[in-house]
Amino acid sequence: MQSQDVAQRPAPSSPAGPVVDVEQAEAALVEHYPRLVRLAYLVLPPGLGRSRRVVTAHALTQRALPRNRTPAPVIPAQSTGRDGDPGYALVRLQVLRTALEAGLPLRRKAWPKRSQLPPLLPQVWGLKLFPRSGGADELALDQRLSTLSGPARAAYALRGVERLADDGVRKVLTAAGVADADGALLEADGIPAQYGLLDSPEFDPCSLQARPTDLMRRRQHLKAALAAGAALLVCGALLGLPGEGWGPDGAAAPPYARNPAAQAALDPAKLTRVDPAAWQSSARTDFSVWPARGGLTGDTALLRRALAVWARPGERVQVSATPGTLSGGPAGPPQLLYAGTVDAARVVILYDGLRIARYAEPEDGTQGAALDFARVDGAGRAEASAVVLGRSDGNVRYLTAPWVSKAGERDLLKPGSGSMDLALTDGVTTPMASPALRSGPCTSWNVLQLADGKRTRLLSDLGELVPARLTSGRPGSPGEASGAAALRTWQPYACSLGSVRSAGVRTVNAWAFNEQPLPDASGSAAWVCTRAETWRGGGARVLAQFHTPGGRYGAVAAKAENVPACGARDPQVLAGVLWKSEAGTWYLLAAGSRQTESIRATGGISGSARGSRLTLPGEQGARAELKGTLRDGRSLGGLR
Q1: Peptide bond before 46: cis, by omega within 30 degrees of 0?
Q2: Choosing a second label site near 412 at 20 to 30 A (CA), which of 129, 130, 565, 632?
Q3: 366 contact partners, CB below 8 Å, separation of at least 6
Q4: pTM (2 d.p.)
């Protein structure tokens, strides 16, 4: 969790406002209770877990009632509906102040504040309460908010829930004890302004769903209490079930639904297992014909834990999913692709026809687990060539398809250096360097090279379960990026793959759509368009890049998202860049795909040219609008 920028001193005094009676404050609290609780829930640190955040939000709101007559701060109540209500301004300020205090780190030489401790009231015995789940947009917003500091979350919530302008937010944060209110507003600006989502049930701690706590563990604790007293009960609660640290369902939450379909999906004996030779005769060559591999495919207990956690991930399970991928349980028994030990973890790979699910637990039996999802519907032979088994120490290890005969590692920045062989053991590769785990400058980009019969494919780890396939050539009919010409095309642009990490990318194609002679006679520059297609269909990202002779990397001239340019539906593209010659002269250089008949520039630089290239004198900082005309008469706008 990020450190909280809240002053460790009494909140700065605000100008004294009207004196508020306890009755007036209580009336405001009761009338606006749902909004106040929602505000507290959004500001509380995400590390508390959803259930504890709900209870703590209610506790802090109920404790906001003053004990006697109190002057109200002169700060805005809300942009609509509650202006001039000093009672509401008073209780809202107290709710915000204690919610921020709850996120402060505990100090050894100071007593903790009451808001930093688990609430005594309210308490619900035997149940876990948490808000109803929202959609993918709400989940994405919740994940983004969890990366903010407490004051920044408070700023975002005051903007969205209270509809306060920035000046009002600044005053409220300052009154609540935030030392750097401007910094909190600036940090909150990094999150898209999706304030309408804050009204959804995902963030409503007053509209709750209930689930039981661990029923088997409660029964065992009761027996222990009757036999050995309260001390033994506490020990049993801390130690949990005996054995290697895992209960029957491992880190899964307690079951809440009992029906034949749900039970069948949790039964390890009903897992689908494919014959090792099925892919050789099947009409399909995708994940559905992968056999079950690994040394633990017969470990029923491990498989049961993996299925149970998939259906009901508990609070100690770290769940991740690529964009557009649902994380709910399987509709029926999934297919087993792998179960074995990878580095220091036991790993299970499952496939349900739509998604790949990876379950991992520590080999030493400590509590906690990880559950990752990737969408793979519509995968063909090329996209179903490999799955990530695990990452550690900057390396990645893959499980390859049964039709893969050879694996290697290649650096895209060194197309002439060849590939280094990776050993294959039952389809599992030895570790190779992962560009997805590297930080700092991009000095190499290692990719997985697989041999499939007479074809050779390149796949790049982009931080997800399924690596992205790399291709090269004209959109609509690209080829594998493993040939000598394709490798030279990719070399200056390999590091641009970092811009599409964790975006659910399926394939990335590089297309050299034009070459342009430089006006200082220093050679020709290359124009390349890279397009990253996603598994979900939407969200494709396009980069037009410009590479001059002798340069190691290409420069991004334009970029766009969710546009047809440079794709199979409309491969035409037009982009421009301001370029400075070695003599210090500035030029506007623009190029379109080969079907471009003419290009015109307007704005800070004006001019036109016949053909698919344009060169005009320019000056530093000038901006121009590009417009092209295709040979069939259609208009072509410049990529931005």
Answers
A1: no
A2: 565
A3: 245
A4: 0.62
